Structures are given as structure tokens and as C-alpha cells.
Amino acid sequence: MSLVAHLAELRNRVGKALFFLFLGTAVAFWWYEHGLGDFIRAPYCNLDPKLRYGDANTGCGLLILDVFGGVFIRLKVSLLAGAVLSAPFWLYQLWAFITPGLKRTEKRYGIGFVLISTTLFVLGAVLAYVSLSKGLELLLSLAGDGVVVALTAPDYIGFLLSLLIAFGVSFEVPLIAVALNLVGVLSHEALAKGRRWIFFLTIVFAAFVTPTQDPFTMLLMAGPMIVLFELAIQVTRIVDRRRAKRAALEHFHELDDDEASPLDARPSALDTRPAPLDAPVDSPTSPRG
Questions:
Q1: pTM for the predicted model, two decimal places
Q2: Rounded to whole angstroms, how far apart are CA atoms 181 and 94?
Q3: Stretch 203-222: mean pLDDT, rounded?
Q4: CA distance to 14, 86, 93, 98, 249, per residue, from 4 (Å)
Q5: What backbone phi and psi angles, to 5 degrees, belong to 181?
Q6: CA gap 149, 51 in Å, rounded
Q7: What is the DSSP letter of 152?
Q8: How sure is the predictor about 93, in pLDDT bands with cuts at 50, 70 and 90?
Q9: What is the Cα–Cα distance from 159 to 238, expressed in whole angstroms?
Q10: Distances (CA, A) of 221 to 2, 160, 162, 191, 209
Q11: Digit-coded pLDDT (tens) for 131-173
């Protein structure tokens, strides 16, 4: 395809992806009043009434301090939820644009990478959502008695989304190590030697990335990441072993049929050991039966 044809194809794919994103956002905008808003507020509303705004009579709620705050919050949540809902459709458009330029093995690796990365991101986000209540309870309880904690909707929604994204992206980091190993940039030997540093830096990374900055959330992120890194190291070990076996079998396969294979012209060492006395002498003139 020419450059103009590539640009036209890209324009069509981007247009279709935006259309599906718009549909997903519209569905999430309607869903916000039918369960999505309650799902987002659940970690906060499940706290002890002493740690949040509202009681049994008024119910649990988040504060909005300006006129357009509610509109912007609903649009922000709807856009992100719509991106998740329409992800299979706009990811297919991206994949359909890239696929014609890939080889068969690259397509196989690409599909596996997308599936595994999506699964890891979802697992990280689910873990973040489950642990959010404990993190909020720890942080809000530090305010002490006599203090009424009332979170605004923008602050809480922003905190929730940043936590979900931080956990989801952090679970992708071990997969990057496997991808670098598949392309030959990072070896299993290097990963195995730096295992202790990797685990230490993982804890440091979790301490800086977690928005709550509390030990509970930090360890909750660092623990699964360490397990995933160890799993990635074992995967690279298997990949390097298979690569070494394949290289041994295909040692001369890159040569042409008319090209001579490289031979070792160095003379071999002579056997200087004396022959036994009863050893038969093989004479060129002796008959062979």
C-alpha cells in the first residue's frame, strides 16, 4: 500500500474506534444511575459511619463544591468505563491495522501478549478495588476523634481511578521482562543474577506508586508483583533453553546449498599411547575374510 492508502486506512480505523468508544461512553453514562455509581462509592460507603460523611438517616454521599462538578465527574467516569466496555472493539481496529505488516510468529506473540496483558491489568485493578476499603479505613482513622471526614467527589473518584491504574500497570511490568527476553534483549541469566535487586526495587516501586502510601497497600501491590517476577524469570529460563536447542539444531541452516560449512582446520592431537603387544596388526596386504 502507498503512504496515502496507509493514512486512509488509519483514518478509517481511528474513526471506527472512536465510534465504538462513543457508544461505550453513552452506555456507561446511562449505567451510572443504575449501579455504576453505587459500585464506585461502595468502598467508601462500606466504612464505619464515624469515618465518612453521612449516617443511617441521610445515607452515604460524596460532596460536590461547584455547579459543574457533578457533570464533570459523571462524564469522567462514563468515559473511562466506556473505554473499558468498548475495549474489544477498538483494540480490534488497532490490531486490524497492524496485522498486515506482521509475520505469522509475530501475530501469535502479539495475540498472546494482548490477552495476557489484559488479564494482568484486570487482576491488578480488581485487587486494588478489593483493598481500597482497608486502605481508606487506615488513612481516615489517622485523623483521630473529633474530626468529621467528608470527601469530595472529584478527590475520591480521582483517588480511586489512580489506584486502579497504578495496580493495573504495575502488574504489567513483569510481562515487559518476558517480552524483552523474547526479542533477545534480556537473558534469563541476567534476570536470575539480579533477582534480589529486582525484588528490592519492586518494593521501592510499590512504595512510590501506591497513592495511599500505607504499608498495607504497598505490600499488597509488591507481593503479587514479586510472584509475577519470579514466574517471569522461570518463563525466560524455558525460552532460553528452547532457543539454545534450536540454535544447536540450526547451526548450519543459514548457509546456502553451494556454500561449504566452516570446518576446523587445526590438527588434532596424536594418540601417543603404546599399542598393546597382542593387538592385531592390520596390514593393507592381509586378506580380509
A1: 0.69
A2: 24
A3: 78
A4: 15, 28, 18, 16, 44
A5: -70, -35
A6: 6
A7: B
A8: confident
A9: 40
A10: 47, 15, 14, 21, 9
A11: 887 777 777 777 667 677 777 888 888 888 888 888 888 888 8
What pLDDT is stored for residue 271 in this prediction?
Answer: 62
Residue 168 to residue 118: CA distance in whole angstroms:
9
Separation CA 110–CA 228 (nearest Å) = 20
Between the CA atoms of 161, 43, 207 and 176, what dihedral angle is there, to the nearest 10 degrees?
Answer: -50
For residue 256, is pLDDT > 70?
A: no
Q: Give the distance between the most distant pair of CA atoms in the chain.
A: 117
Residues 6+ apart with CB under 8 A from 44: 52, 60, 62, 133, 136, 151, 156
Take residue 219 and report the three cell numbers written for it: 505490600
More confident residue, 93 or 247: 93
- In contact, 17 and 89? CB cutoff 8 Å: yes
Nearest Cα neighbor of 128 from 155, 159, 105 is 159
Cell of 14: 481511528
- Of the candidates 148, 152, 149, the one whose C-alpha atom is nearest the C-alpha of residue 66 is 152
Contacts of 152 by beta carbon, 8 Å cutoff, 6+ apart: 62, 63, 64, 65, 69
Of 6-15, 182-191, 248-257, the least confident: 248-257
